[in-house]
Amino acid sequence: MAPFIVLIVGFLLFSVIGYFELPLNEWQTSLRLAVAIMFLFTAMAHWGKRRPGLIKMVPSSLPYPNFIVTITGILEIIGALGLLITITSKIASICLVILLIVMFPANIHAAKVSVRIDERPVTPLFLRTILQIIFVTAVILAGWY
Predict the structure, then answer these.
(1) What is the pLDDT of residue 23?
(2) Rounded to an integer, what distance in angstroms lies between the CA atom of residue 105 and that of residue 109?
(3) Fewest Cβ atoms nearer than 10 Å: which of 37, 53, 71, 95?
(4) The three-state (H, E, C) secondary structure of 9-54, written as one string
């Protein structure tokens, strides 16, 4: 839920700045910045105190969960930075959508086995699915303007 809040607050903040005709006067630019910040925010968890919970989210059928969590964090950072560069924003958008889709089974697994991150349960699967659709839509709109 925290990434959703970061996305919405970031978008609103950048939109307000854009309202005053500063460099962010288009909603797509505000969204692109908000999505990039959201991915940088989520990437931080891959190395912080939430890391053990993210490792537990990786389905047991996959090898090297530590490595998977590290790589997905790196890919989130690269994708976020790619969104901020006009020439790479479309490919970054495509790659981030693929990453979201590939990582979604971990969310299903986490909901099924009741993984806890920072002593809090993960977002329930139905709500997580809605959020996933919102994130994918935001990433597509951010990269294709």
Answers:
(1) 62
(2) 6
(3) 71
(4) HHHHHHHHHHHCCCCCCCHHHHHHHHHHHHHHHHHHCCCCCCHHHH
Distance from C-alpha of 9 to C-alpha of 5, rounded to nearest angstrom? 6
pLDDT band of 36, cuts 50, 70, 90: very high
pLDDT at position 105, please? 92
Q: Phi and psi (nearest 5°) for 98?
A: -60, -45
Separation between Cα atoms, residue 82 and residue 38, nearest integer Å: 13
Give the N- to C-terminal CA distance of the chain in Å, as an integer.
26
- DSSP letter string over 62-100? SS-HHHHHHHHHHHHHHHHHHHTSGGGHHHHHHHHHHHH
Which pLDDT does position 22 carry in this prediction?
Answer: 62
Rounded distance between C-alpha atoms, residue 105 and residue 120, angstroms: 19
- Does pTM top 0.90 for this prediction? no
